[in-house]
Amino acid sequence: AQSVTQLGSHVSVSEGALVLLRCNYSSSVPPYLFWYVQYPNQGLQLLLKYTSAATLVKGINGFEAEFKKSETSFHLTKPSAHMSDAAEYFCAVSNFGNEKLTFGTGTRLTIIP
Amino acid sequence: DSGVTQTPKHLITATGQRVTLRCSPRSGDLSVYWYQQSLDQGLQFLIQYYNGEERAKGNILERFSAQQFPDLHSELNLSSLELGDSALYFCASSRTTGIETQYFGPGTRLLVL
After folding, report:
1. Once rounded to an integer, what is the mean pLDDT over residues B62-69?
2. Closest chain A CA to residue B103
3. What pLDDT was estimated at residue B86?
4. DSSP secondary structure letter of residue B84
5. Would you say B13 and B21 are in contact if contact means Cβ atoms under 8 Å apart?
6. What confidence tens digit (pLDDT) does each residue in A56-93 have?
7. Confidence at residue B113, expressed as pLDDT on a 0 to 100 scale
8. Are B98 and A99 a contacting pair at CB < 8 A?
9. CA gap B106, B102 in Å, rounded
C-alpha cells in the first residue's frame, strides 16, 4: 500500500518569500513521487517528478523538490514566491508496475502582496 | 493546454439518472486514467485503460463503468446517480504504461440534484 501525507491544508507566504510545501510518503516499494499544481477551474499540471535518478529534482516555474529516503519526505520549495504561484498543490506517489497516482489531500497556497 | 480533452465541461442531472463522460487522450497516448475529485474524498483513482484493455482498478463503484475504444478515446459511465456522486471527474493520459507523466484534462464537473 502507498500513501501520501501533506502537512498543512493552507499555507500563506509573502510575495518574495520562500515557499515550502511538505509531503511525506509511505510505500512498501521504491516510490515514484510527483508534485502537481491545480489553478482554479483547471486540471492538474505536473510541476516535477522523482523517478529514482537524482534526489534533487528541478521542475517548472522555479520549483524544486528533494527526495529524502531517511525522512520519507519529498518537500516542494521555491526560493521566491510570486503572485502567480497561488494555487492548490498536490503531492502524489506511484510505483513501478502500479502506475495509478495516489494523491495527498492538497495544500492551498496563498501569496500575500 | 495539456492536449487532453473532456466533454462536457459541466453536467447537471438528477438522482437516479445515467450520464456518460467522454475523454480524448493526447495524440499518441495509449493509457487513459480516470480520477474523481470531491470535497470529502479528495482526488481518487478510479480506473485505467491501456490500448483498449482495462489495466487497473481503484475505488470505482459498481454503478460506474468505463471503456476505451479503438480510436483510444474513453468514456466513463455513471448510473443510478446519487447526490454523493457530485464531483469533478478528471481524465489523464500517458504515452504507455510505466512511470510516464500523466497529462490531465480540464475535468467534467458533475452536479447531481
Report:
1. 97
2. A45
3. 97
4. G
5. no
6. 999 999 999 999 999 999 999 999 999 999 999 999 99
7. 96
8. yes
9. 13
B102 shares contact with chain A (CB less than 8 Å):
yes
Asked whether A92 and A5 are in contact (CB, 8 A), the reply is no
Q: What's the 3-state SS for chain A? A: CEEEECCCCEEEEECCCCEEECCEEEECCCEEEEEEEECCCCCEEEEEEECCCCCEEECHHHCEEEEECCCCEEEEEECCCCHHHCEEEEEEEEECCEEEEEECCCEEEEEEC
Q: Report which DSSP code applies to B26.
A: P
The CA distances from residue B16 to A40, B22, B35, B110, in Å, are 30, 20, 21, 14
Interface test with B, best of A2, A3, A34, A44 (most B CBs within 10 A): A44
Q: What are phi and psi of A60, to 5 degrees?
A: -85, 165
Task: Tell whether A43 is within 8 A of chain B (Cβ).
Answer: yes
Using the structure block, give the residue that is written with the C-alpha cell 479528495.
B42
Q: Name which of A46, A102, A103 is nearest B101 (Cβ-Cβ).
A: A46
- Each residue of A21-53: pLDDT tens digit? 999 999 888 889 999 999 988 889 999 999 877
B98: pLDDT strictly greater than 80: no
